[in-house]
Amino acid sequence: MAHLFKRNVLLGVTGGIAAYKSAELIRQLQLLGANVRVIMTHGAREFITPLTLQALSGNPVHTELLDEQAEQGMGHIELARWADLLLIAPATADLLARLATGRADDLLTTTALATAAPLLVAPAMNQQMWRDQATTDNIATLATRGVHLVGPAAGEQACGDVGPGRMEEPTIIAAAAAGLFQSGLLAGKRVVITAGPTREAMDPVRYISNHSSGKMGYALAQAAVDAGASTTLVSGPVNVPVPDGVHKVSVESAEQMLDQCQALLGECDIFIACAAVADYRPASIEQHKIKKGAEQLTLELVRNPDIVAAVANSAQAPFTVGFAAETNDVLSYARDKMQRKGLDMIVANDVSDQNIGFNSDQNAVTVMWSDGEQALPCASKNSIATQIVALIAQNKP
Ligand code: PMT
After folding, report:
1. Is 159 part of the annotated catalytic residue set?
2. How far apart are CA 63 and CA 21, in angstroms?
3. CA distances from 105 to 102, 111, 135, 358 (A)
């Protein structure tokens, strides 16, 4: 069944009588696993209070474009980046017109312009307004821009008319939202993804590691499952929940990660190396805890095996995608890394920016392959992962 596990759904509520149904819609989205934040227009607040939607969503409701408080925290750019989906329900005729003309005159329309997330609208209006040529043209314009539509339903309306224009039921809207993430792009494929850090032991209680949280790798696993792939995560120690339907193999060190990846090679069509693997490990692991004594302690390190290069150069090499975590000359170092390691694709990640990369909820990357590249601007790691998976599906022979 389609779900919204850990998806960030930004719900826009506009001013129509169906706004009261947004309370139930929040519940339905949450039942499918979504985190929900709400933007209300002025009109929406005439029909239902922000307090109701705040209580149900568990998050403050956003209402103003120019709000000093909001701009310091969740302003329109942060909301736009946070969202994996912008769902507008109910969407009035006026909202559709403003979207179609690219207006940015309130928080909701400005966020709609600023987000890279898909947009799903659930229209709700009087049947004659829905049938009007202006609305028909606006819907057609939005469709050409890739905006998704759910409903409207037909039947008796609050105004007494009968016909099309009623907002779809919340269960149907929530299911349509979840369905957007089920692309089927990798149906039948077997995907193995490395994620998180490795830990290289020095003694029984100490290790060398790094700041990888696993968020990017786990988001990729979610995106691969949503694309229909049978998905295995080979993961270092992290605190991120395993997406439904993903098989997880836990490892600690780079050598363990290599062993597990090699064992999976026979069942792998696509390999994605997102893990931050330690390049070096202590030459030996002390049997007992190293005692404090001398003023200086020298630790001898030896090179770890390069997992992604080993996979890419194996006899049964799958389509192999690496990451390149760089702090300068990001694109040229990444392309060089792709060639040196024999990869089919590489994801260049500028980790000098504290707001993206290691341990953040967002990322911005450039995906590169032999004769092309595509920049993916800052968005949630879920959104970046979905876009990376789509590029893999496009480029995999
Ligand atoms: O986990 P998060 O907090 O969400 O952060 C995500 C991330 C920043 C860790 C991720 O986006 C990322 O950039 N991962 C790659 C980190 C890295 O180790 O990059 P690298 O440039 O050092 O390595 C290049 C490639 O070789 C990577 O695909 C890496 O997995 C692989 N590698 C590196 C060393 C090694 N011994 N074996 C490898 O397979």
Report:
1. yes
2. 18
3. 9, 10, 19, 35
Ligand 1 pocket, residue 348 CB under 6 Å = no
Angle at 87 (CA atoms; ends 229, 216), nearest 5 degrees: 40
Q: What local confidence, expressed as pLDDT, does residue 75 receive?
A: 82
Residue 347, beta-bridge partner list: 323, 367
Q: Degrees (nearest 5) of the Cα angle 72, 74, 78?
A: 105
Distances 226 to 29, 134, 189, 380 between C-alpha atoms, Å: 17, 36, 12, 16
* Residues 4, 87: Cα–Cα separation, whole Å: 13
Q: Quick check: pTM over 0.90?
A: no
User: What confidence category does residue 122 fall into, taking pLDDT thresholds of 50, 70 and 90?
Assistant: very high
For residues 70 and 383, the model is more confident at 383
Q: What angle do CA 382, 149, 93 make, to 5 degrees?
A: 120
Question: How big is the CA angle at 275 (ends 271 and 298), to the nearest 5 degrees?
Answer: 135
pLDDT of residue 1: 63
Q: What is the pLDDT of residue 159?
A: 84
Tell me, in angstroms, the distance from the centre of ligand 1 to residue 381's CA. Answer: 15
Mean local confidence (pLDDT), 235-242: 96
Q: Which residues pair with 121 in a beta bridge?
A: 88, 149
The two beta strands, 119-123 and 148-149, are parallel
Sign of the CA dihedral running 190, 342, 274, 321: negative
Strand 35-40: give its sheet, edge to edge: 35-40, 8-13, 85-91, 119-123, 148-149
Residue 236 in contact with ligand 1 by CB distance below 6 A? no
pLDDT of 154 reads 92
Domains of the chain and CATH, by start: 8-179 (3.40.50.1950), 190-395 (3.40.50.10300)
Q: Does ligand 1 come within 6 angstroms of the Cβ of 216?
A: yes
Residues in contact with 263: Cβ distance below 8 Å, sequence separation at least 6, in sequence order: none
Identify the DSSP state of 197: B
